[in-house]
Amino acid sequence: MEPENFERSLRGFVRRRPFESFQIRFVDGESITIDHPEAVVFRGGVAVYISPRGEPTLFDHRSVSTLNNVPDAAPA
User: Fold this and answer.
1) Which tens digits make up the pLDDT trace of 17-28?
2) Which of 39, 53, 68, 73 gives 21 a disulfide partner, CB atoms 3.0 to 4.6 angstroms apart?
3) Average pLDDT, the chain
4) How many structural domains compose the chain?
5) CA dist., res. 65 & res. 31, Å (int)
6) 54 lies in which domain range?
7) Does any domain span residue 76?
8) Where are the beta strands (DSSP E) in 20-74?
9) Residue 31 resides in a domain
10) Which of 12, 2, 13, 75 has its CA nearest to residue 45?
11) What SS3 state is found at 70?
């Protein structure tokens, strides 16, 4: 994903009001579902997702393939 698209898209998904869960799909085929707006922090082109269990996942524009809505997700 292009750096500008990564940051703009991630910021847009996190700032939606009301917040809606979204999915980040990585180039290796793995994915994570972001279920809370404060679960992701990003700065300087790098982001970290903290799972409900407290496990961090670091990622940047090179590792992300797409960001997508989660079908039929209930707002948080």
Assistant:
1) 999 999 999 999
2) 73
3) 92
4) 1
5) 10
6) 3-69
7) no
8) 22-26, 31-34, 40-43, 46-50, 56-60, 64-69
9) yes
10) 2
11) coil
